[in-house]
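When time allows, look over one protein, given below as sequence and tokens. The question is which stretches look regular and which look disordered:
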Amino acid sequence: MADLLTVQYKQTGKSSNLNAMGMREMQARAYEARDAQYLLLKAPPASGKSRALMFLGLDKLHNQGLKKVIVAVPEMSIGASFKDTDLISGGFFANWSVQPRYNLCVPGGEDQKVKAFVRFMAGADAKVLVCTHATLRFAYQQLTPADFNNTLLAIDEFHHTSADGENRLGSLIDGVMAGSNAHIVAMTGSYFRGDAVPILLPEDEEKFTQVTYSYYEQLNGYQYLKSLGIGYHFYTGRYVDAVHEVLDTTKKTIVHIPNVNSVESTKDKLSEVDHILDAIGEVVEKDMKTGIITVRDETGRLLQVADLVDDGPMRIEVQNYLRNVSKAEDMDIIIALGMAKEGFDWPWCEHVLTIGYRSSLTEIIQIIGRATRDCEGKPHAQFTNLISQPDAEDDDVKASVNNMLKAIIVSLLMEQVLAPAVTFKPRSRLIPGEEVEPGTVMIEDTAAPVSDKVIKALENMDNIKAAILQKPEVVAPAVAGDADPEVLAEVEIPKVVEKLYPDMDQEEIQTVADAVHASMAIQSTGGLFDESELPEGAEIITPPGAGAEDTTEPEDTGIGSAPTSGPQTPTGDPKPNRKFVMIGNKFVNIEHLNVDLIRAVNPFQGAYEILSKAVTPSVLKTIQDTVVGMRSQMSEEEAVILWPRINEFRKDKGREPSVTASDLYERRLADALAYIKRKAQERKAAQAQTA
């Protein structure tokens, strides 16, 4: 099994430590922005978003003059996260309390829930209500936006909405913002959608104060979890015959079987569960009270297995059992179909095995989030995607290749989300005396300061990356080993930026595009390295014009880093712990990083290397041949970039590149040459007509 990404975390404990008010680091950061009318909170699963909202809601009720708090969650099970909670004992000034009649995340028809919602809005003593997104939408049809005056409307799992005109929840939020003085708190652990539709229109997003707590901050601040691996394993034939290759019965595991409509499914979900049980070991018994299955593995260990696939009458008992799990030995393996994603908490889970690709990036984030809870005795968390290996004999090899690439692309996105963040800060925005956070790359803009639009885009870089990674015609060639990094940097990424930010001028677009490409390239090669962490014998290069590498303290470039006990200056003082980036197995001081160096990096090179090792040469050739058909047509911008390479090819080979060559790159050069010749002929013809 190949890991595309392995991230090491420092176990600082910061993300789980409590302050004097009983708040974790993320919750305290959100509370600092409590006065904002519109607040967008982006934080990963298990970071404590539910309790953060309680702190915010209570402050709005007690200190900001608001009269009501409405919490809307995507499904009833998540409503339990907002049950009555003692906050005073932790140092806060009030407790969170929900009157039973206004807890609408309970069984029952929507008609009665809507009536209760309307009563809540009219009741002078009614303070807090919890409901589903659906109940909120239905109730809104019987109310006006003005009815939400002096109300906090909190939307949990905000990625379920979008700016699409067909999205009713999105329209509801627009209406409330336009027609009332309501406050809004939007919370999400994955602020982008799998369908690439923006969640908010740019003009609406600008109204929100954003609080971001990154996945890396969360995981780096744990006490026990030390590392996370994301990888994939290819199989041929039926997945049920390969699941034993990746299922480790010594790991607390959630197995997600494919949807019955997917190509990976055998179309018999119950039979698939039986095969997985066989892969685990020998079934001993099934408890008819709890529905839990006892299985003996090949070592003789008795394992507790939960089947959430069977939707018969016993499933409710299995769910009740899981809700009451209180120690590690209570459960070993969970087999799920559409369950165990959002709103499910099993902190001992250390391995998530997902069969088949998932088209939704948000779904993958939620799935991975099941394994990244911090838990004593769990130093490593693993996400494994078991995916079908394309075969030239497949009836629809293109669909097979596409599915495989989608699975890999999701891993690539996770690489960007879960690894140490690389942030960008314009030098013109530095306050005198401001300390720059480690991992910050400075944008040299003192001569021509960047605009607020650029700043906003840089703060939402994950959106841009998600949009890029959802363009298979862009990513597929790079993953398959047939792409020019410069084309990606100068053509494809700027196109995405321009589409997302149509009001930017070309200079602004290129500034953002350069930053996005740099971030992707840096993180794909391991992120930023402390000088003290460089491997023994590491080769440090200095780009031309950057100045020679020396042993004296470098000039202050605004890239902050704390002194360490590492290298020293001639005076004996500790030298700042400089940051380095790996470029082609060599290391470059971040202070010497330039656009030309970055543009030479294919941020998807790691995926290609792993892919080429994980499949046979014939399969790789099948993938590459199929990808050729996925590529976008040659553009003038790409042809211009490839023209010098065509000339280099002619010089080296003594011939023009061939469209029938076995080498994909040569064929792309040939496509560019044909495009250039065609355009030249068209210009000559046009000139002849005007002569």
